[in-house]
Amino acid sequence: MLKKLLKIEKKIFRKIQQTINIVLRPIGLSLVTNAERSLFTLHEYKKPDGSFNYQEYKDIQEAGNLKKIAKVAVQKSTIVEICDFLKSRIEKPEFGLCHGTRRGMEQLWFSQNLDCEVLGTEISKSATDFPNTVQWDFHEKNDDWLGRADFVYSNSFDHSYDPQKSLNAWLDQLKIGGFVFIEHNSSHVPEKSTAMDPFGAVLIAMPYLLHQWAPERFVMAPTLIPSSKDGTEVNVFCLKRIT
Q1: Where are the domains of the chain?
Q2: Cα–Cα distance between 199 and 35 in angstroms, integer?
Q3: Contact predicate 169/141, CB 8 Å
Q4: Do the beta carbons of residue 75 and residue 129 sit within 8 Å?
Q5: Residue 186 dihedral angles phi and psi, to the nearest 5°
Q6: Which of 111, 106, 112, 113 has its CA nearest to residue 121?
Q7: Angle subtended at Cα 160 by Cα 35 and Cα 200, rounded to the nearest 5 degrees
Q8: What is the spatial distance between Cα 145 and Cα 175, in angstroms, rounded to a whole number?
Q9: Distance between CA atoms of residues 93 and 10, nearest Å
């Protein structure tokens, strides 16, 4: 997966440089990219033989979740803004999913604002401690959810060991015309990628990455930019499933 990311990164660098240089060239300037700074990265979990160590990933995610169990990362105002977006595009949402929910506040706020059934998933065993939350790895498909959801939301994309796999699993859960909402912020950068937060990407790279990982499966609506309580820039990428 990391090798694929590096190839995509080179393409992004090249496209960004070409686009900016079109603007700069008439005034005699050009952009020289800083090759030392990555646009995105992915932490790898490996056994001694080099194969994927899923158990290590799961154990780290569960331990990290339990350590932060009292904290709520998502802001209610962000969920309300997404609900307003949905109401303007889907007359009566019936079912939604939220992935990586820890305490389950996301599904509560969505349910209250949309008056529909919303389930949350959490990889940790703590999932059963919170209402409308099931213990589930969001990378995996669930036959009960295929083609059923009007929307899927997550602010845990940075916790994915394989972003392409999770993105396509989430798209599969949607009805045609449903939306995936991926919340990503300016603190989820490559330099801060860890075993707990394996995926790091600068905001400007996200639309290109998403299209590379699920080509011709969605169209992107205007990005929502909600306010942030800690000063980070928050983007909610809105992907409408078309196939």
Answers
A1: 2-40, 54-241
A2: 19
A3: yes
A4: no
A5: -70, -5
A6: 106
A7: 25
A8: 10
A9: 40
Q: Give the whole-angstrom CA distance, residue 224 versus residue 210.
A: 16
Q: What does the block give as tokens for 9?
A: 């990164």
- For residue 48, CA distances in Å to 45, 52, 53, 232 come to 10, 10, 9, 38
pLDDT on residue 30: 43
Q: Which two tokens stand for residue 120?
A: 């949350």
Q: What are the beta bridge partners of residue 151? A: 96, 179
CA-to-CA dists, residue 215 to 113, 137, 164, 168, angstroms: 32, 23, 11, 10
Q: What is the CATH number of domain 54-241?
A: 3.40.50.150
Residues of the chain with pLDDT under 50: 28-36
DSSP designation for 241: E
* CA–CA dist 160, 19 (Å, integer): 30
Position of tokens 């997404």?
A: 82
Q: How far apart are CA 184 and CA 193, in angstroms?
A: 13
Beta pairing class for 234-241 and 218-224: antiparallel
Amino acid letter, residue 207: P
Closest among 125, 137, 121, 107 to 66, alpha carbons compared:
125
Burial group, residue 169, by CB count within 10 angstroms (0-12, 13-18, 19+): buried
Q: Which residues contact 8 (CB under 8 A, 6 or more apart)?
A: 208, 209, 212
Phi and psi based region of residue 102 (left: phi greater than 0; alpha: psi -120 to 50; beta: remaining): left
Cβ atoms of 181 and 151 within 8 Å: the answer is yes
pTM of the model: 0.87
